[in-house]
Amino acid sequence: MKNALVLVLMAGLLLAACVPAPAPVEQQPAQPQPVVEQPTQAPPPPPQPSPAPVIQPTAPQYAPFCQSAPAACQPPTVELRDNAFCVEKVPYAILAVPAGTTYESQDAGMECIDQATADGSLRITCHSKEGKELWSYNLKVCNAACSAPSLQMGTGQCPEGYGFDAANQCCAVPPAAGSEAGCIIYRVDIGGCPSG
């Protein structure tokens, strides 16, 4: 049995010697793994839906504001030069006022005309349409610089209660009804013409 065991061992060795050894496995070079670059910044967040815009009511755009007439306005000075200057037996009153003065007779029977003079003043000459003598009438005289400009109401260029001054391109408060800034009523006494 010993022999048999030796025989088996020998047979195994022989067999091992006859069988070719397995070929060594060639190692293939390692394939480089693709390098994935990591981003240095975080990707932007997805866009958020914007909220609906809030619609603000638009405030109306008005013209700038201004005064309708100068704040401190003085009436013109009136000087009676002659109240018995006669032409064909009709007495005339001659008044001197500053240039830019406006006037209005307060008597329908009185007629007035004006004329500029070399000294820059204005001469107002008035007489009765009927040739009356020795009587008095009223003449309204105003400083034209005090008069409020003509205001256009309801143009949409000014808030309610204001008028648009087209000459100055601004909004102003209209003068109060019956406002007489810079005006006076001057009493003119007409004299008589000499008879003869």
What does this entry look like structurally?
The protein contains one helix and ten strands. By secondary structure, it is mainly β. The strands form three sheets. It has a four-stranded antiparallel sheet, with no helix packed on it. The chain has a three-stranded antiparallel sheet with strand order 3-6-10, with no helix packed on it. β8 and β9 form a beta hairpin. The radius of gyration is 57 Å and the shape is rod-shaped.
Instruction: State the helicity in percent bands.
Output: under 10%
First-to-last CA distance: 199 Å
Helix count? 1
Ranges with pLDDT <50 over ≥5 residues? none
Helix and strand pattern: HEEEEEEEEEE
Rg estimate, integer Å: 57 Å
Structural class: mainly beta
**Percent of residues in β-strands:** 25-35%
Task: Specify the overall morphology.
Answer: rod-shaped
- The total of beta strands comes to 10
Strand order of the largest sheet: 1-2-5-4
Summarize the structure.
The chain has 196 residues and is mainly beta.
List key phrases describing it.
3-stranded antiparallel beta sheet; 1 helix; 196 residues; 4-stranded antiparallel beta sheet; 9% helix; rod-shaped; 10 strands; mainly beta; single chain
Mind sketching the topology for me?
Layout: H1 2-18, E1 79-87, E2 90-98, E3 101-105, E4 110-116, E5 121-128, E6 135-143, E7 151-152, E8 163-165, E9 170-172, E10 183-190
Antiparallel strand pairs: 1-2, 2-5, 3-6, 4-5, 6-10, 7-8, 8-9
